[in-house]
Write a structure and sequence with these properties.
The chain has 260 residues and is α/β, with parallel strands linked by helices. The protein is built from eight helices and eleven strands. Strand 7 and strand 8 form a beta hairpin. The radius of gyration is 17 Å and the shape is globular.
């Protein structure tokens, strides 16, 4: 039986960029406004965050912003993030403190998914072994080594596993070396399958298009993970949640209310 009690999608910022960053080889010249999301899962055995968004200081501080975002690796500039959107402040709206988070689960370690880990030094931080290694190289420009200069309570895992009954980590490599999605069995409604960046947009799923950035340019691996997600959705009845699709997010956004 699932231990999941409540589930919130939480907007932590937005990022405007060319669609080709989400759909490989498709959307040149089209600018999209992508949500940067975290997901809070309250269970009978503690609270889990899937992803934690950006490090606010690298956006708000002019010197840091120039260093990290105003360079050739970021032709579309920095994400947009307000003080209010910092994840600890969003949690306060729910009557929670950052110390109330027991586990941070990083689907992968790119800046817009794991940068905010510095806000949650008291929590366990789960990540796939291959992803941890890729971040240390770093494998691409979306990894900021400085995101992890703070004391991080790492828990390094291989393969798939249950965090608690009803919350399962699912291997979906391709966008990055150790990318992980998450299957959540809800107490009342259908299961939710968080795709992470294995599928930024609904289009990635519907047309089986790889994300723009693929680890070692392995498009086939990324598409295999999309197919895996679709098959798992069919087997479990889970609803697939793409990760950077504004239209999809707005159809689901009920914060501070929750899903059951």
């Amino acid at each position: 039986m699932t231990q999941v009690k409540k589930f919130w999608p939480i907007l932590t910022g937005t990022h405007r960029y060319e669609k080709t960053l989400s759909t490989r080889g498709h959307g040149k010249g089209i600018i999209i406004n992508a949500p940067i999301l975290a997901y809070l899962i309250e269970t009978a055995n503690g609270r889990i965050l899937y992803d934690v968004g950006c490090d606010y200081s690298k956006i708000a501080d002019e010197v840091k912003r120039k260093k990290f975002y105003e360079n050739e690796d970021f032709p579309f500039g920095p994400p947009q993030m307000t003080e209010e959107q910092r994840l600890p402040n969003r949690l306060v709206e729910l009557g929670l403190q950052k110390e109330d988070i027991d586990v941070v689960f990083c689907g992968h370690l790119h800046f817009d998914h794991a940068g905010g880990v510095c806000e949650f030094c008291g929590a366990e931080v789960h990540v796939h072994e291959k992803e941890f290694e890729a971040s240390r190289e770093p494998a691409d420009a979306a990894y900021f080594k400085e995101d992890f200069d703070c004391p991080v309570n790492w828990r390094i895992y291989k393969g798939e596993y249950d965090l608690v009954p009803g919350v399962r980590a699912v291997e979906t490599p391709g966008h990055t070396a150790g990318h992980m999605s998450m299957l959540i069995e809800m107490p009342k409604g259908s299961p939710i399958l968080l795709c992470g960046d294995a599928a930024d947009l609904s289009e990635n799923l519907e047309k089986e298009i790889a994300p723009g950035l693929c680890w070692h340019d392995d498009e086939a691996m990324a598409i295999a993970s999309i197919k895996k997600l679709k098959n798992l959705s069919f087997e479990t009845g889970a609803e697939l949640w793409p990760n950077h699709d504004m239209r999809f997010f707005e159809s689901k956004n009920c914060f501070p209310k929750w899903f059951e």
